[in-house]
C-alpha cells in the first residue's frame, strides 16, 4: 500500500430543507482526510464533525457502497458520480482529488427527481416507469433448466449490458435536458434482447415511454452525456433501439 | 387516426421523430438548392443560373405546391423544435452551480436552438432578398450580384451559413439516432458522413457570399 497522503479540502455542499424549499451552498473545511477514503466516507467524516458541533448532518442517499445498488449519487464539480469513468460515487476515492481543492457537491437536478433534503432526491419516478412495463408477465414457476430456452450469445451479451443499469439516475442528472432516455432504454433494451421479453415488447415500450413523459423528464437531443456519466457504461445504442421499437409499436398499434 | 396522431406527436419520441424526418427532408432540399446555386459560378455571365431560375418558374402551379411543401417542412421542424426545447428547459428549473460536462457535449449539440434561431432569422432575410423581391423574375443573376455585392448583405449570408453548418454537424447524425439507426459498425461511419455532408453544404453555400465579396464587392 502506498503512503497515506492526507488531504485538506474545502467543500461547497448543497443544503436544502425540503422539496421546493430554496437551497444554498454551505462551505466546510475538512483537514486530515485519508486519500484511501471513498467519497461517501469523506461525507461521513463531515457529518460526524457537524453532529459534534451540534449542527445538522448532510442528508445523502447510500446503501451497498460497492457500486451495485444505485442508491448513491451526487454531482461532484459538475460531474455525476465524480470524475472517474464508470464509477459510482461510493467507489470514487479521495486520491482523485488534490489537497487544497474546492469541491462543489450538488444533488441530481431534475424536475423528475424532487430534492427530499440536501443531496437526497426522490427517484420514485423510475419505479413508476418500471411499474408501467419493465417486467415480463409470466408465471415463472420454479427455476427453469439453464439451457431450456436457447439464446444466442450476442443477444445474451446485449441484454446483460443493458441489464447492468442500476437505476441511479446519473443519466438524468448529466443530461442537459434532464431526459431519462438512457435509463428507460436500458430497461426496454434488456428485455427486448431476450425471448421472454418478446410477447410484451410493443406494449412495454409504449407504456414505459408514456410513463416517462408523464414524470416531467426532458427530451433526448443526443448529446450522449448520459452514457459518459453512467457508472455502468450503458450504451446510447439502447436509446436508438427504444426509438426504433417505439416508432414501430406506435405505427402498428391496433385500436 | 386523429387520436393516434395526437398521442404520437405528444410523446417525446414522436416529437423528435417529426423533427428528425422534417430535418432530413430539409437537408435534401439544401442539397438541391446548393446544386442550383453553384450554376452561379459557370463563366457565362449568369446565363445558366437565369435559365435554372426560369425552369423553376416555368413549373407554374407545381412550384407553388413545392413551396407550400417546403414551408410545411420548416413549420413542422421549427414548431417541434420549440416544443421540445421548452419542455427541456422545464425539465431542469434548478441550475447546477458547476455546469455539468462529461465530455460528450459539443458546441454544435449545445447550441442547436440558438443556431436554429439564427438560421430562421437568416431565412427571413433571404426570402425578402430573393423570393419577395419582384426584380428576381426580371434578372435573377443581376439581383444576386446586386444584393451580395453589399458587404453587409454578404456578411449576413456568411453568418447565416456558418450557423447552418454548425447546426447540421450535429443534426444529421442526431436525426438518424432519433429514428433508431445505431449500429456499432455503421453508426460511427454515418455520423462522420453526416458531419462531412454538413461541411460540404456549408462550404458550398459559403463560397457564394465570399466570391461575391471578392469579385463583386465594391462594385456598387
From TrEMBL, chain A:
InterPro entries xref list: 2Fe-2S_ferredoxin-like_sf, 2Fe2S_fd_BS, 4Fe4S_Fe-S-bd, 4Fe4S_Fe_S_CS, Beta-grasp_dom_sf, Helical_ferredxn, SDH/FRD_Iron-Sulfur, Succ_DH/fum_Rdtase_Fe-S
Keywords: 2Fe-2S, 3Fe-4S, 4Fe-4S, Iron, Iron-sulfur, Metal-binding, Oxidoreductase, Tricarboxylic acid cycle
Cofactor: [4Fe-4S] cluster; [3Fe-4S] cluster; [2Fe-2S] cluster
E.C. no: 1.3.5.1
GO BP terms in the entry: respiratory electron transport chain; tricarboxylic acid cycle
Single GO term (MF): succinate dehydrogenase (quinone) activity
Chain ranges of the 4Fe-4S ferredoxin-type domain: 156-185
Record carries keyword Oxidoreductase: yes
Broadest EC class assigned to this enzyme: oxidoreductase
Family designation: Belongs to the succinate dehydrogenase/fumarate reductase iron-sulfur protein family.
Protein name as annotated: succinate dehydrogenase
Automatic annotation (TrEMBL), chain B:
Keywords annotated in UniProt: Membrane, Transmembrane, Transmembrane helix
Transmembrane segments: 21-42, 62-86, 107-128, 148-172, 193-214
Domain of life: Bacteria
A GO CC annotation given for this chain: membrane
Record protein name field: Succinate dehydrogenase/Fumarate reductase transmembrane subunit
Organism: Engelhardtia mirabilis
Lineage start: Bacteria, Pseudomonadati, Planctomycetota, Planctomycetia, Planctomycetia incertae sedis
Amino acid at each position: 500500500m502506498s503512503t497515506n497522503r492526507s488531504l485538506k479540502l474545502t467543500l461547497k455542499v448543497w443544503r436544502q430543507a425540503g422539496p421546493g424549499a430554496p437551497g444554498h451552498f454551505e462551505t466546510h473545511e475538512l483537514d486530515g482526510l485519508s486519500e484511501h477514503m471513498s467519497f461517501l466516507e469523506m461525507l461521513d467524516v463531515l457529518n460526524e464533525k457537524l453532529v459534534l458541533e451540534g449542527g445538522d448532518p448532510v442528508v445523502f442517499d447510500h446503501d451497498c457502497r460497492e457500486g451495485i445498488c444505485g442508491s448513491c449519487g451526487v454531482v461532484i464539480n459538475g460531474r455525476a458520480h465524480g470524475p472517474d469513468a464508470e464509477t459510482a460515487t461510493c467507489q470514487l476515492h479521495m486520491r482523485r482529488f488534490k489537497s487544497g481543492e474546492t469541491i462543489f457537491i450538488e444533488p441530481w437536478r431534475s424536475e423528475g427527481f424532487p430534492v427530499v433534503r440536501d443531496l437526497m432526491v426522490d427517484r420514485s419516478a423510475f419505479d413508476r416507469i418500471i411499474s408501467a412495463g419493465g417486467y415480463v408477465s409470466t408465471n415463472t414457476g420454479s427455476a427453469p433448466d439453464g439451457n431450456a430456452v436457447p439464446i444466442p450469445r450476442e443477444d445474451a451479451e446485449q441484454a446483460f449490458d443493458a441489464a447492468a443499469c442500476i437505476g441511479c439516475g446519473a443519466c438524468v442528472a448529466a443530461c442537459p435536458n434532464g431526459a431519462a432516455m438512457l435509463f428507460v432504454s436500458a430497461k426496454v433494451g434488456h428485455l427486448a434482447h431476450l425471448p421472454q421479453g418478446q410477447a410484451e415488447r410493443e406494449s412495454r415500450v409504449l407504456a414505459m415511454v408514456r410513463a416517462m413523459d408523464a414524470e416531467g423528464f426532458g427530451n433526448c437531443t443526443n448529446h450522449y452525456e448520459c452514457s459518459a456519466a453512467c457508472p455502468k457504461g450503458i450504451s446510447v445504442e439502447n436509446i436508438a433501439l427504444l426509438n426504433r421499437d417505439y416508432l414501430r409499436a406506435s405505427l402498428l398499434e391496433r385500436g | 387516426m386523429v387520436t393516434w396522431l395526437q398521442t404520437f406527436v405528444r410523446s417525446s419520441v414522436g416529437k423528435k421523430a417529426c423533427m428528425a424526418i422534417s430535418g432530413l427532408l430539409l437537408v435534401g432540399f439544401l442539397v438541391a438548392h446548393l446544386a442550383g446555386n453553384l450554376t452561379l459560378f459557370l463563366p457565362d455571365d449568369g446565363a445558366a443560373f437565369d435559365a435554372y431560375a426560369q425552369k423553376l418558374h416555368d413549373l407554374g402551379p407545381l412550384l407553388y405546391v413545392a413551396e407550400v411543401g417546403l414551408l410545411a417542412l420548416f413549420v413542422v421542424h421549427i414548431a417541434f423544435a420549440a416544443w421540445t426545447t421548452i419542455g427541456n428547459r422545464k425539465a431542469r428549473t434548478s441550475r447546477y452551480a458547476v455546469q455539468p460536462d462529461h465530455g460528450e457535449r459539443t458546441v454544435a449539440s449545445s447550441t442547436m436552438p440558438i443556431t436554429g434561431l439564427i438560421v430562421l432569422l437568416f431565412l427571413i432575410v433571404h426570402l425578402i432578398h430573393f423570393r419577395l423581391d419582384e426584380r428576381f423574375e426580371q434578372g435573377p443573376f443581376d439581383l444576386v450580384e446586386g444584393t451580395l455585392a453589399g458587404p453587409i448583405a454578404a456578411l449576413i449570408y456568411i453568418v447565416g451559413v456558418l450557423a447552418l453548418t454548425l447546426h447540421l454537424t450535429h443534426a444529421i447524425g442526431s436525426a438518424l439516432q432519433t429514428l433508431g439507426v445505431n449500429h456499432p459498425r455503421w453508426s460511427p461511419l454515418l455520423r462522420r458522413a453526416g458531419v462531412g455532408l454538413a461541411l460540404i453544404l456549408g462550404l458550398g453555400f459559403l463560397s457564394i457570399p465570399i466570391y461575391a465579396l471578392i469579385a463583386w464587392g465594391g462594385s456598387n
